[in-house]
Design brief:
Length: 284
């Protein structure tokens, strides 16, 4: 391929943010290679098989790419073990920019993907680390909060009165596309939030108005939340998730940023707008 024919490799191209990133890039007329374990066709993109657990899939996925959207392997306790060799291979293949999806709760050098965050600037010339707050989508579709909202009108957390700058996945994708395509890469980490920091009580009130059904926030203790989660997942993972709620209660996510406005030129979507758009998926 010539330099003018280079494309963007989107890992996780059928996932929550990857699908939105691939669609936006394709809509802008950019060449996209949609990577996934099943090489699922994605509108406007060339599908390619990619599996973090199969390094032999890396070469074909990287062929002709000059930038990549990185989604860490789901559930991997040590994503750096596979992601750093991939990034070194990507650099050798001609990739010069990577945009990594991380989390507002994980700093550079922190656990899991935080190790990749820390290493990224030393591996590629340009890039960005996206650190979105908690997803608004956690309240729709098949997500845990959405299931309990439909089952008995409750949201159960150990977050107390803590507030979160819940963010729309569409806004994360918009920031990702900017970071991938702008003439000058951000070359920093980007905390991405919605326009307001809301408590789970606030969320329940918005959902009550949107759905016409009473939704309440059931405040659990850390121990209650941990034990409830442990019924469906490994104890260590349950403790980690309950600990994230406890961090919210202590103010860890009580912030908003201007990232979406500054990089996309428009305000981030409000939770009320999200709830109205996703009403059918919230109701189930």
């Amino acid at each position: 391929m010539t330099g003018s024919e280079k494309f963007t490799l989107v890992i996780g191209a059928t996932g929550t943010t990857g699908s939105r990133v691939a669609a936006r890039l394709a809509a802008e007329g950019r060449r996209v290679r949609a990577a996934g374990r099943r090489a699922t066709p994605v509108a406007g993109a060339v599908p390619v098989r990619f599996d973090w657990d199969d390094p032999t899939s890396f070469e074909a996925a990287l062929d002709g790419a000059d930038r990549v959207y990185l989604i860490p392997p789901l559930g991997a306790p040590d994503p750096a073990a596979v992601m750093l060799p991939f990034l070194r291979q990507a650099r050798a293949a001609g990739v010069h920019r990577a945009v990594l999806l991380s989390s507002s709760a994980i700093p550079a050098g922190g656990p899991a993907v935080g190790q990749v965050h820390q290493a990224l600037p030393g591996l590629l010339a340009d890039g960005a680390v996206l650190r979105p707050s908690w997803f608004m989508l956690n309240f729709s579709g098949d997500h845990a909060h959405a299931r309990t909202i439909r089952a008995d009108g409750t949201i159960r957390t150990a977050a107390g009165e803590g507030r979160v700058g819940f963010v729309d996945a569409d806004d994360i994708a918009a920031v990702a596309v900017h970071a991938l395509t702008a003439a000058q890469a951000p070359n920093t980490n980007l905390i991405i939030t919605g326009p307001q920091a809301l408590s789970y009580d606030d969320i329940a009130a918005v959902l009550t108005r949107a759905t016409g059904r009473t939704v309440t926030h059931d405040r659990l203790t850390y121990e209650q939340m941990r034990d409830r989660l442990a019924a469906d997942m490994p104890a260590g993972f349950a403790a980690m998730l309950a600990g994230m709620d406890r961090a919210i209660a202590e103010g860890a996510e009580d912030r908003t940023t201007d990232t979406v406005q500054r990089l996309t030129g428009r305000a981030p979507h409000s939770f009320r707008a999200f709830a109205e758009r996703e009403l059918d998926r919230i109701r189930g």
